[in-house]
Amino acid sequence: MDVLTALAGYLESRGVGKVGKSIFVSEMPSATEGVLLFTTGEGLMRHTDVSRYFRGTVFVATRANGYQRAADMAKAVFDVMDFEGLAANGMRILVCLPESLPSPFGRDESGFTEWLSSYELALTIE
User: Fold this and answer.
1) Cα dihedral angle (19, 75, 46, 40), rounded to 10 degrees?
2) What is the rounded distance in angstroms from the CA atom of residue 121 to the CA atom of residue 96?
3) How far is 72 from 5, CA to CA, in rounded Å?
4) Is residue 1 predicted with pLDDT exceeding 80?
5) Cα gap 19→92, rounded to integer Å
């Protein structure tokens, strides 16, 4: 039931990077170029009174040594995070839609440029 890990695998299958090397879930080593998937503290919430149906927002940060490289990585994620009907890890992601365009987020403590975007998810748990 780990939606972030399922999404990381999906990004890898679409050629965005490699899980554990350039695609990370919840935390990413400092001074590392890559894609980070995370949620807020509340995670994905049950929606309405429908059993096993959840909705929420997943955030994606890209980090690279250079503004354009980070922007290109953010675009690569954006281009594949608009889909329907992904079955993975005992879940069915009904829809994944961008909530915002990727935008620059500044630099981290190691001087790498970061971009941030967000995606709405609706999913059911089997």
Assistant:
1) 80
2) 5
3) 22
4) no
5) 20
Q: Copy the structure tokens of residue 89.
A: 């890890």
Pick from 21, 22, 92, 10: which is nearest to 61 by CA? 22
Residues in the chain: 126
Which residue type, as a one-letter code, is found at position 26? S
- pTM for the model: 0.90
Pairing label, strands 23-25, 34-38: parallel
Calpha distance 8→12 (Å, rounded): 6
From first CA to last CA, the distance across the chain in angstroms is: 9
Sign of the four-CA dihedral 33, 8, 116, 45? negative
Q: What is the pLDDT of residue 116?
A: 97
